[in-house]
Amino acid sequence: MRFGFRRLAAGLALVPALAAAQQGEPRAVSLDEAVRLAQQNAPSTVAARNALRTGDAAVRAAISQYIPSVSLTGSAGQSGGTTFFQGALVPFKGDAWSYSKGYSANLQLFDGGQRWYNYKAATSNVDAFFANEVAARYNVALSVKQQYYAVLAARESESAANRQLEQVAENLKVAQLKVIAGTATRSDSLRAAIQVANAKLAILTAQNNVRVANAALTRLIGSTSQVTAVAADTADVGYVAIDSATFAKLADDGPSVRQASASLIAARSSHQAARTPYLPTLTASFRDNLNNSNDHFSWSGGPSSSSTNLSFSFAYPLFNNYAREQSLTVAQVNEANAEATYNDVRLGQQQQLTQLLGTLRTAQERVAIQLVTIASAEEDLRVQKQRYNLGASVLLDVLTSQSTLDAARAALIQARFDARTTKAQIEALVGRDLK
User: CA 385, CA 174: separation in Å to the nearest integer?
Assistant: First the structure.
């Protein structure tokens, strides 16, 4: 039995060293740097920025509809070939080279306001794309912060496990001495040895959690080499004063709400644009052409003629197989859907904010309570150790106090992690950093 415990302890001590040897030393990055790199490289933020570019292009295209379209034309040609003359095939030269060049311009003078509504829809879509880009950046920041805080929590767990190992190793030493002195049973040393093995296992688990969190953080920022969080005091969780009314206003102006609002405005503009085919259109056209001919291939010289033409055209479709009605119905449905989505997003933001503020408030209180709990558990463990050394209690009392202290430390680590990640979730919800 004793040999089995020694082999278990040796194996648990060896595995972290082997794992560390296999992994290169990761490069420490600050939280701000990690967020910046992830926002630069993440596929979602890249797609959001590209969507914004296409939206800007759509706005430029909508504005250009107010500018006349201009075309340049030019042609040159000569005919020739062979013909029958008195029963013989004789080549002949046709007309002289003929040339034509000119330009034309077209401008729609009235379209029922369709161009204006299309422009409004395009600008609203840009607003939606911009809000989406903000949401994408903060969602990526949330993912990075969660993994960054996971690294810090794993390091806290490793530190707590090392402290636990020191304490249970001391318990094991005292139990072994008491067994040798005959004042304790062999079960005391076995229980203490199990506690030592569990502490080493906790260290191994925490170290593995650090490596897993480092790998996730590395992927998020798009780094080709392993990165990790900067070693810092993890006790600071960044206290946030909770003002529900202020946060409610921020949530109403969050990126998701702004995106839904912009999409609703775009849908309304598209609905108005769908009504314009019921109005007539008026278009102006101008053409200027120059024609000349020449015996040689030359664009100048020879007899020439020119012509100009200015015309206005009026069109009003009386019946187009219900195409206007179908487009109008689709536009009305899209507007109704966008309005329902906007209302739901606003209510959803308020619901999520209420939940997150409650979670943050609870996590902050848990941190304060667990600090007091740890202080009480440390004092209780100290008293139980003294009593056990004096023979006034059994080792089970010491181990119970040790387990209470370990649980309080783990609860504090979880409370800090919850407070940090909840704060990051609120930042992603309102689309701004909370200081």
Answer: 9
CA dist list (Å): 257 to 338, 339, 343, 413: 12, 12, 9, 34
Identify any residues that bridge with 92 across adjacent strands, giving them in sequence order. 81
240: nearest Cα among 144, 139, 140, 365: 365
Q: Is 80 exceeded by the pLDDT of residue 4?
A: no
Q: Phi, psi (5° rounding) for residue 308?
A: -130, 150
Q: Please report which confidence band the pLDDT of residue 302 belongs to, taking 50, 70 and 90 as the band edges.
A: low
Q: Of 203, 194, 153, whose CA–CA distance to 363 is shortest?
A: 153
Please determine, for residue 336, whether its predicted confidence score (pLDDT) is greater than 70: yes
Distance of alpha carbon 203 from alpha carbon 157, whole angstroms:
8
DSSP of 116-180, one letter per residue? HHHHHHHHHHHHHHHHHHHHHHHHHHHHHHHHHHHHHHHHHHHHHHHHHHHHHHHHHHHHHHHHH
- pLDDT band of residue 3 (cuts 50, 70, 90) is very low
Residues 26 and 228: beta-carbon distance below 8 Å: yes
Integer Cα distance of 398 and 93 in angstroms = 119
Please give the full DSSP string across 233-246, using - where no structure is assigned: -TT--------HHH
In the numeric block, the tokens 């106090």 are attached to: 401
Instruction: Tell me the mean pLDDT in the region 48-70.
Output: 95
- Buried b / exposed e over 66-84, threshold 16 CB at 10 Å, is eeeeeeeeeeeeeeeeeee
Token output for 260: 């839904």
**How far is Cα 398 from Cα 332, in angstroms, rounded to an integer?**
73
DSSP secondary structure, 394-411, as one string = -HHHHHHHHHHHHHHHHH
d(CA 201, CA 214): 20
Q: Is the whole model's pTM more than 0.90, yes or no?
A: no
- What is the structure's pLDDT at 15? 47
Give the span between the Cα atoms of 220 and 93, in whole angstroms: 75
Q: What is the pLDDT of residue 293?
A: 77
Which stretch of 87-96, 129-138, 318-327 has the lowest confidence by average pLDDT? 87-96
Other CB atoms within 10 A of residue 270 CB: 23
Q: How many Cβ atoms sit within 10 Å of the Cβ of residue 368? A: 12
Domains of the chain listed by start with CATH number: 21-75+112-284+320-430 (1.20.1600.10)
**Structure-block tokens of residue 430:** 């309102």
Contacts of 230 (CB under 8 A, 6+ apart): 28, 29, 30, 31
What's the mean per-residue pLDDT of the chain? Answer: 87
The CA-based angle 40-142-420, given to 5 degrees, is 135
Ramachandran category for residue 327: left, alpha or beta (phi over 0 → left; psi -120 to 50 → alpha): alpha
